[in-house]
Amino acid sequence: MKSMSAIIFKDIVIEMRNKESITSMLMFGVLVLVVFQFAFETINVERGLLAPGTLWVAFSFAAILGLNRSLAMEIDNDCLQGLLLAPISRGELYLGKVASNFIFMMIAEVIVLPLFVVFNNLDFNLKFLEVAAIACLGTLGIASIGTILSTISANTRIKEVMLPVLQIPLTVPVIIASVEATREVLTGDTRGISSWLYVLAGFIIVYLTASYLVFEFAVEE
Amino acid sequence: MKLKVLAILTLVSMLTALYMIFLYAPREALQGDAQRIFYVHLPLAISGYVSAFLLFIGVIGFFRTGDLKWDRFGETAAALGVTFISAQLITGSLWSRPIWGPWWVWDARTTLQLVLDLIFIAYFMLRSYLPDPQKRAKLSAVFGLLGMIDVPINYLSIYLVRTQHPQAVVSPGGGGVSPEMGLTLTVSFTAVGLLYAYLFNRRLAIAKVEEEVDYLEQVVLAHE
Amino acid sequence: MALESEDIRKTFGYFTALGGVTLKVKRGEFLALFGRNGAGKTTFLKIAATLVKPTHGRLRIEGIDVREEPEEARRRIGFLSHNTYLYRDLTPIENLRFFGRLYDVQDLDERIHSLIDRVGLQRRASDPVRSFSRGLHQRLGVARVMLHDPSLILLDEPYTGLDANAVDTLNQMLDEAISAGKTIILTTHDLEQGLRAASRAIIIDRGKIVFTGDARDPATRDAYRQYIRVGVTP
């Protein structure tokens, strides 16, 4: 536990100093929202139907940016080796990185979300909090699988380009569940929402566990 | 010897299946002759899932023993998976066009198959950028594991979407399945199954030879 | 026994980096590892540091089997290579504080400040490492290695990139470590630096130990020279 918090703290200090991760995720997220605005301008559909998809496209691609930056930082100067030398298990190392990736993604999303509400002329009410809660779950799902996938892709020559290839097919359930749940919240028809939440929770539990167990294979020489 | 027998059986069953699909099975009332593609379509789809399961076996085998032969096993399963699923998606497209008009239907099964295809393709892309055999085996086993446990979760979420947004259901035939159709389907399944087994065997053997050639190349290079 | 390796082998694909290294290093020994590039010195050191898993063989650090209790083994090991494993955006103090937490070092702040003084980084202690020259990097790397007071110190070509002052400081710290009963294994191309304080010298060639001898014995020097010239040892 202590080592996990050390890792998270270290990542936060670095991010506060160079601000690369959060700003790039933020900019990208906003840009995607804006582009989709233009794309869907002439379509006369209830906002609540289209908007969730836009939001999650923004989130999932921004997440890939964030994961790549986080990885690049550990590749620089071979710092990952320094972490592997330490008396912490590979699984703990994994959880520490998932936590810090999750935190940075959430920070970017917390800023993008209100913009999302404004752009789509929604209301800042209870629904907003519910959408944010769904975002938490979805982001944790993405972080849990993205952290180990970025470690795998680091071993290839094309590094950061490999990550989306590996990640997008695997995060399909997270995206579907998050989009559908968000859509239900926004349109007010929440009959099926519990199944989506179960899917998200199931994904998180399954992938945190599996990645925790096999992380050493992904990360050792 | 066994392989020759398998090859002959495969050939015979495929020819039989072809005959039955085109000549023996009755013309389907609602969809006409285009419906016949279904006899190929369904077995191919199942082969996709079988490949996923076999890749999973290969991954577990590799994690338990570290023996590269499990890596070859998994890779062969994935190769057949890509081939059979892509074939299934293409035949599915050929089927849906004359019947409903669109080239592509985003129904549960096709979406699932497409995502599975993408996972297999990602698996091969990853492998192609990892030259060292040990590392390649290790990392593709990790990705294979993560990918294959995704399959049931995917299944769940995609089917959930469809049950909540009911659409035109893709079904084999509206008016019930006649005994001739049932028989044709069984023969077709057998043919595809035998073809799969045969190809799996050959591919696995080729993979082993490729590995030996690689090894010899390295040995020669090292001595220069 | 500080380090015991039994028939350690390592293959990378079809390339055999180590073909069976069996070595026993007693506590307090200072072992110098020589060998050409690609001979397997770094691979062996990395295996000793638990960074790389051997394809075959057992390794024990102070009696602890590395496969069974890797974390306990790592607590006792300090490894320095030409990559310093330091975070460029952090200052020396922040870097050391992070590693200190990972290793659960007691009286961390005191220890950090005394080490920073020891390696001569006082004036740059609050600058991000990004602005450091290679020599300063290495100094901080040395501080990082010593931070958790490891009993086995592994150094991979530690003298590269160091100026004369830094070399002296490093040598002093190594001497202090030996007096304190630590064990040191270092690899180097520099015969003089390697033999300076070492008690034993080993030559590794093509993944195997081809020579082992007392560092202070002149025969060792001759053996090394012959190896460099001709490629074989007596």
Structure description:
- The complex is a heterotrimer of chains A (221), B (224) and C (234).
- Chain A is mostly helical and 221 residues long.
- Chain A has one domain.
- Chain A is 83% helix and 0% strand.
- Chain A is built from nine helices and no strands.
- The two termini of chain A are 25 Å apart.
- Chain B has one domain.
- Helices cover 81% and strands 0% of the residues of chain B.
- In chain B, helix 3 (68-100) packs across helix 6 (179-223).
- The relative contact order of chain B is 0.17.
- The model of chain B is unreliable at 168-175 (pLDDT under 50).
- Chain C has 234 residues and is of the alpha/beta class.
- Chain C has two domains: 1-76 and 151-234, Rossmann fold (3-Layer(aba) Sandwich), CATH 3.40.50.300; 86-149, no CATH class.
- Helices cover 36% and strands 26% of the residues of chain C.
- Chain C has helices at residues 41-48, 70-75, 92-102, 108-118, 134-147, 164-179, 191-196, 218-230; strands at residues 3-12, 15-25, 30-34, 56-61, 64-65, 77-80, 152-156, 183-187, 200-205, 208-214.
- In chain C, the strands form two sheets. Chain C has a six-stranded mixed β-sheet, sandwiched between helices.
- The two termini of chain C are 28 Å apart.
- The chains are: A mainly alpha (221), B mainly alpha (224), C alpha/beta (234).
How many strands in all of chain A? 0
| Radius of gyration of chain B using CA atoms only | 20 Å
| Largest beta-sheet characterization of chain B | none
Instruction: Give the H and E element order of chain B.
Output: HHHHHH
Q: Using the alpha-carbon principal axes, give the shape of chain A.
A: globular
Main interface: chain pair and counts? A-B, 33 and 28 residues
Provide the residue-averaged pLDDT of chain A. Answer: 89
**Any idea how many domains of chain B?**
1
Note poorly predicted spans of chain A.
none
Summing up helix and strand content along with how strands pair, one would put the structural category of chain B as mainly alpha
What is the 3D form of chain B?
A: globular
Distinct helical segment count of chain A: 9
Calculate Rg of chain A over CA atoms: 18 Å
Q: Which spans of chain B have pLDDT < 50 for at least 5 consecutive residues? A: 168-175
Q: How many strands, what sense, and barrel or not for the largest sheet of chain A?
A: none
Order of helices and strands of chain A: HHHHHHHHH
Q: What's the helix count of chain B?
A: 6
* Beta strand count of chain B: 0
- Helicity of chain B, in percent? over 70%
